[in-house]
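Hey team,

Sharing the MarR family transcriptional regulator run so nobody has to redo it. Sequence (219 residues) first:
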Amino acid sequence: MGRSLPLFFEENSEPIDRRIAVGLRKLGLAMKLQAWEQANHEGLSPTQGQILATLSLEGPLSGSELSQRLGVTLATISESVRALVDKGAVVKRPDPRHPRASLIELTPQGRALAQKVTTLPDAIVSAVGALSTLEQEAFLAGVVKIIRSLQLSGHIPVSRMCVTCKYFRPNAHEGALPHHCAFVDAPMAGRHLRIDCGEHEQAEEAQREDAWRRFVQPE
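Structure output:
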């Protein structure tokens, strides 16, 4: 039998946070490649596919709003929107909120294309489904915290998560359903947290900070 080296891996391993980051990078690359393949199959660029997917989820948006959602320049959005208009996938209409701005809206053809490019890869969904219920819940909580941290540092735009919503009430109850959604007036557990919710309305900064504090450090 070989010599026992109980501390070998303690002394010869990358920090766990770096290993997790490497794993997330691999998953992100797999998702990105799948999205590119889907968009390319439909004759779209990756950015055009993202625009269609975002409009499908959120409805008509201005160019500035798309730029903020996707984290790309307004010039890139404008160029992609022009191409989508030429393809008959979107139309530009006056924005009633800003007389000199336009809203980009999906056409019926654009909605059909959006449906094709927003489908999650079956392999990824199946892999996540192979995790136990407890593993899925812990993974979801970790993903929420990572996304929130990246938002606070300005590395990614704010997405429509429960933890940034004005209707979210973290740790408002005792027991298995500690959180509360004021929009539907119902309690919820950590496994019910949404990463992208259609009813999301962003809370004011002070409310977001207070909700996050109560979420990660329940009293």
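The chain has two domains: 18-117, 132-216.

Ping me if you want the raw files.
A.
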